[in-house]
Each structure stands twice: as C-alpha cells, then as structure tokens.
C-alpha cells in the first residue's frame, strides 16, 4: 500500500458516497440494450417463471409457497429450502428498475406480492415459507444448511430497494418486523442463539436496513454475525449434535471440509485465503467491508484486503469468474484454475463485482474498479442470452458439448443457456445487477468525483454545495474515446478522477482541447483533473485498446503455453460456429497479427478479432492408432475469428475455448 493509501485508510469512515440511482440516466450504445432487456423482457419473464407459467422450464413454486403460507391457497411447499429468495431478488430488481423507469403495472404486481408477504408473515415477525409450511417446530435448528438468514437477507435487500423506489412503508415495515425478531433471537446475551447462517448474506442486508432506517441495532447485529463466525466451539457442530447428527442434504457435508465450505474454519479477521463456497466468501466480504467502513474497524478492513488479494491474484479466472470446482461450488487452492471443469457461478462473479465496489468506496484504487469491470463485461452479462430467456449457472472457459453430455465430471457445464433452474439464484441476480448498474459508474468523496466505469449517460451529482451534471458519450468498449461534458450553474472547483484501466498501456486526456500530462496527476490509477469547472467544459479521454495476448502465471498449469486474447475490458474466445470443431487443434503463431473488425450484423453488433493461425491437418494418418512415435504433426494455415466471451453460445450448440495454444 502506498503512502497516499495509508493516509486515506487511517479514517475508514471517510468513505465515498454512492449517487442515488434515480440521479443516473444511462444512455449507452452497449449497456442500454441490456438494461432495456432486463426491464422489458427479463423481469416479466422471471415474473412468469416464479409463477410457474413458463413452458419447458423447471417449475419454481416460489409465489405459490407464499400464497399457501398466507392462507390464500392450499397445498404443500415445493422447491429448494431457499426458494423464497427468488421472489426477493425479483422484487429487488423491480425496486431498482422503478427507481429509474417508473412503471405502474410493474409496481402493481410488486404491491400484490408485498400484500401476500404481509399475510404470510407470522405474528412474531418470522417469514420463511419452508419452515412455516414444512417444519414449523424446527426454526433455526439447522442454520448451516437451511438458509433461513440468507432468505431473510435477500428480503431485506428487496425491501430497501423497493422502499427507495416508491417510498411505500409496507415492505420496509415487514422487513423491520422480521429483523427485530432476528435481533431478539440472536446475539451474545444469555438466552439468545449464539450463532450465524451457513450462507452469509444477512450481514450485508442488515447493513442496508441500518442505512435506510438509521436503527443501530441492525448494524450491531450485522457485526455480531460476522464476529461470531469461526468462534469455538463450532456452532454448526453443536447444532448437528443437538439434532441427532442429522443432515438436511442427503449425504451431508464432511465436517472438517465443511468448516472451510462455510468459512467457519477461522474467525473472519484471521482468514487470509478464500476458502469454500465462492458465493458465500464474497457475500461475507461485502458485509465485512460495509461494517469495517461504518465502524472504522481497520482490522476488519485488513482482513478484507487479504481476502481480496488472494482472490484476484491467485484464484480468479481471466473472465472475472471465481470458484474452481463443482464440488461445493468452491475455491480449491492457489492457481488451480481448470477451464473445462470450472464452476465460476454467475452469482459468484456478481458477488465479486459487489465486493469490488465496496472496496472502491472505502479506498479509491483503480484495481478494484478494474475487477468490477472485468466481471461485468465478461462473466456477468455472459450469464444471460441475448434474448433474455436463457441463463448460465456455470461459466466455463472451455466447452466440448459431447464431454458435457457423456463425462460425469462435466455434467454441471452446459453448452447452451437454460430457461430456468430449480435452484434459480443466478437469473434474478443478473437482473438486479443490470437494473442497478448506474450505482457503480461514479462515486463521490468530498470534492472528488470518481469515474469508475465508462458508460454513456448523465449523472446529477452534489459536490460540496453545488449541483453538477456529468454527461458521458462513448462507444466503449468497442471504441477508445470517452467524451465527458460538465454542466454547472456556477463555477465549481472539484476534482474529476478518471480511471485509467490496468489493460490500457497509454491514455490521453484533454480538457477543452488542452492536453493534460496524465503522469503528473495520476494517483492510485486515476487521472486527477482538478480545476475550477465551468458550464460546458469538455474532457476528452482516449484509452488505447491494443489487442493483448494475456498469459497466466506459470503456476496455473491449465494455461501453460497458451494465451487468452483481450481487447479493452473484453476477453475473447473461439467458437465452433466461426472456426469449426476440434478447436484444440488450433494454435496461434507468436508472429501472427490480430486485427479488430466491427461486424454490425453479428450478435447485435460486436468487435471481432481475426488472425491467421495453424490447424493440425494430418488426422487421417492416425487412422486407428491412439499413440505413435512416427507420425509428425502437419499444419494448414487457416483464418480464425475471436468473439467476445460474453457473446458465446448464442448461435446454437458448439465448442468454445478462451485459452489458445501459442507457439
């Protein structure tokens, strides 16, 4: 950490502020279509899905569970133990959408759901349809496996988003009643449960509830759940013994391995490596960062830094994916990043982007925004088809459809996006990310406005006592130029901090056509343009986008001798649709030049990369031989085409690879 960062970190509570979502209007060639898709297609599609009205999709039963619990229907609980969270994430996405695009019909649907939730809530505040309908006497008896606090957390997040959008108190009152009940149930006091949830989520959600209600008991409870994690004796072991060593999931979880799976192997302040279930790790880190910043807890923030560094320097895929194995959807060990058996759950990349944003709020360093951008432009939008009706749970970097079908170790990898899932956490997670995208573009710290992402649109920002407007115009990520216009009623002195991405070897800045020396004003990866701004001032930022041959650390055995191609924030891949089958036969010569070419009619308009490569040509000589010392490889010259990774699997079933042999 450099001197400037050390000075900044002395007061963690001097964190940056988010700009209210309704102050951001995105108008962007690249992102607007995704946001429109989320609002006009995906939210309605998911509404149909959670109401079991999508043909050929796995039934959800999520709304029906609540209707049964509310006494509006008869029947039994169906779905996963955490099925309630699908409704909450849909409702949260609705809240974000309404903050920027009011829609009376959508609001009516949400209000009807909230009415059902109110009827389903028990008189003491408890709200969880699985335990209300199926095991009413077993509340809180299996916190390791049954996601009660996880579901509560997602509901709290939804309540805050919807309240911020509509100012309607009903959903917030339901959430506070439930949170008050949890506060009365858990804590260090005698007679309370001294425990926590198996899936971190409620911690960050309680923090959001605290921020909107200013009720400090929610902050204290969030901190308690974090600090209690990893305490000895092990809480989950004690609950397991108490219920007669019975597991919820068939086969259970190995007790010792499970401690890492649940992030309970050590107190969180002593955890320095990302272990276990990847989504749980980054959700835990979000809560840690929130509480650290609010309370000024430098030790807790240091733990965040340690976990961050381990993830991004040793356990993250080049696409922003995390989680190397399907067994437990987990991290494994440093540099273990297989491409074809990878898990890289969409939710995990979303969690990583959210964690990056928290770190960026605490300490404005471009490395956090770089990772947030990497996840957004590659894995997160890649998790959804271009029609908004198909989704990836798993995001591989190498796919052979026959292997996915016939090799049991690869059954979790799908070569095409699925319509829906019984465990449908990823689709609504993508939607809530897209509908809240404006939150991540800018942050403000005193008289500094940080431009973290380059996305076209306008933002109304309060700097000091002055209102300013920042307008971005750009064709990013395809083109290198970003034009920023400043609007202000009177002269205003502030610093506009422009992120210079890590992939950008050279950048140029002009203010009203005057060239600015970036090296003289660069701090923590940002060009700090400080001046007295006048209405109509223009900043021209050029971010050079060379085509990069990225190499992995030699300790990543899966990628040795291979390169991944990147241009700007986008990682590229080869698809069978462009290059034929058996993509592993191709190698990219070191001297081959790569050319960028925009194809307006392909996949909604994308920049493709073309090169001359080599492919093995003498397969016929092998005939029935599996091994030989006599046959020499022969190659033909071929033309290959790379497409952005996020766009793969939108043209039927076929092979795909990110890492290509180079020689």
Automatic annotation (TrEMBL):
**Which intervals hold domain Non-reducing end beta-L-arabinofuranosidase-like GH127 middle?**
449-545
Carries keyword Hydrolase? yes
Superkingdom of this protein's organism: Bacteria
Can the keyword Hydrolase be found in this entry's annotation? yes
| Keywords of this entry | Glycosidase, Hydrolase
Q: Which gene encodes it?
A: hypBA1_1
What EC number(s) would the UniProt record show?
A: 3.2.1.185
Q: Which Gene3D superfamilies match?
A: 1.50.10.20
Could you state a single Gene Ontology molecular function term?
beta-L-arabinofuranosidase activity
What EC class does the entry list?
A: hydrolase
Protein's name in the database: Non-reducing end beta-L-arabinofuranosidase
Q: Where is the Non-reducing end beta-L-arabinofuranosidase-like GH127 catalytic domain?
A: 23-438
The residues covered by the Non-reducing end beta-L-arabinofuranosidase-like GH127 C-terminal domain are 549-661
Which Pfam families does the annotation name?
Beta-AFase-like_GH127_cat, Glyco_hydro127C, Glyco_hydro127M
Q: Could you mention a single GO BP entry for this protein?
A: carbohydrate metabolic process
